[in-house]
Amino acid sequence: MLRSLLQLFESHASTQEPELTVELATASLLSEIIRADTNIEEAELEAYKKQLYRQFSLSQEALATLAKEGQASAEEAVDLVQFTQVINTHCDNQQKHTILKSLWEVAYADNAIAPIEEHTIRRIADLLHIPHSQFIKTKLAVTDGEV
After folding, report:
1. Other Cβ atoms within 10 Å of 108 Cβ, number
2. Which Pfam families match (predicted)?
3. Rg, the chain, Cα only
4. Least buried of 90, 95, 116, 139, by fewest C-beta within 10 Å?
């Protein structure tokens, strides 16, 4: 009986999904912004891919795979913590700021920021331990075209 329990735990441990990477966590957070207002626009999808390319310098094939995996991961997620935890563990403040800027870029790709998009970015910024002043400055820089 003990042996069968050990086998059950071992098989469960071996079937767990691989750890999230910073790239996948970032793609998932960006995808959350696209999905936030339930009005997915082509401009937002293009900005999503553009931001992933800018941050990670991927080939077109790798970019397409990451974009698709990020969208799937965001759809399956029950919270944002699983993504922000990876970023908090592996990224410094400058990298977190770059991610915040990317979130605003995707949200503003259609020249409007829905309240739910802003709320979602605020939640992500809090989870990334980004000060509110930096949250506002980054938003204004993106919406005023100072980026």
Report:
1. 20
2. TerB
3. 17
4. 90
* CA geometry: angle 83, 84, 88, nearest 5 deg: 130
The yes-or-no verdict on residue 115 having pLDDT over 90 is: yes
Judge whether 36 and 120 are in contact, CB under 8 Å. yes
Q: What single DSSP character describes residue 116?
A: H
Identity of the residue numbered 93: N
Tell me the two tokens of residue 52: 């992933």
Each residue's pLDDT tens digit, 16-67: 455 689 999 999 999 999 999 888 889 999 999 999 999 999 999 999 999 9
Tokens matching residue 117:
């998009």
DSSP type of residue 92: -
Q: Taking a C-beta distance cutoff of 8 angstroms, is the pair 130, 113 a contact?
A: no
- Record the pTM: 0.85
Say whether pLDDT at 147 is over 60: no
Q: What pLDDT score does 16 carry?
A: 45
| Cα–Cα dist 100/79, whole Å | 18
Residue 15 per-residue DSSP state: T
